[in-house]
Structure formats: C-alpha cells, structure tokens
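Annex B. Sample input.
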Amino acid sequence: MKNLLQTLLQNRKILYRILKHTPKEELLRIPEGFRNNVYWNIGHIIVTQQLLIYGRSNLQMIVPSDFVEKFRKGSVPNGLASEEEIDELSGHLFTTIERTVADFEAEVFNSYDGFTTATNFEIKNVDDALVFNLFHEAMHLGIILSLQKVNANNLKS
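Annex B, continued. Sample output.
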C-alpha cells in the first residue's frame, strides 16, 4: 500500500507542475470537442479521491462541500477561477494525500460502503478504492495532457 500511496504522490507532483506552469487562460480554456478544462480535471481528481476514500468510509472529507459540488462527476466548469481558487486547488493536491497517508498509518478506515463504478470496477473496501483512485487519476492525467496539446495547437493557429 505504501508504494501505491507514493505513486499517488508522484502523480500529484506532476499535476502541481501543470497547475503552476500553465497560463491561467489555458487552465480555464475548454477546447472545442471537450466538456471541461485542465483546472476542472485537477479539481475533479482531488474531489473523487476524497469521495472514494473518505466519503465511502463515512469519514469527514478534507475539502469543503462547495468544492465537492464544483468538481464532482457530472459538474461542468464555468471557465472562471481566481488566483486564490487556483492556489487553494494546488494546496489540496498535497494536503489530501498527506492526510490519507497519515490516516492509513493510523488505521482510521474501519468501514467502507462498497459499490460498482460506472466503468464496472467493484470496490469492496478502502484498499480497492485506493487502487481504483490511482487508475482514475492516471486517466484524468491523460485527459489533461490531451487538453494541453489541443490548447497548444490552437495557439499556433
């Protein structure tokens, strides 16, 4: 489990670099053919991890409820974000994983409401949820990289 959590942390470092080194207008741009942007995908990754690990374990999430509503599955970005909101997002990239590591070490995950995901993964416990979360984050990293490529190509046009 420790290796899996380290892999999650590495992914978050990549997302942090993208968030900090991508111009704001590119973070918020929704290219033709896409439903969301880089900013939303990063927020969605954070919220999904919180819902999968803490929400389904009936534990208090680290992120506020309005943050969850803004980035949960089915939400749509409005194309706006202040510098403060971007900074808040970048902070959650690490605080959520650090807390998850600490809570795993403290063995606070005692129950889990299992379910089957939309992609037909059966999640029975928090360990399954952590594995699925890594898959989910990698999938959205791929989407983010595609968004960046489309944005870069649109700038050249």
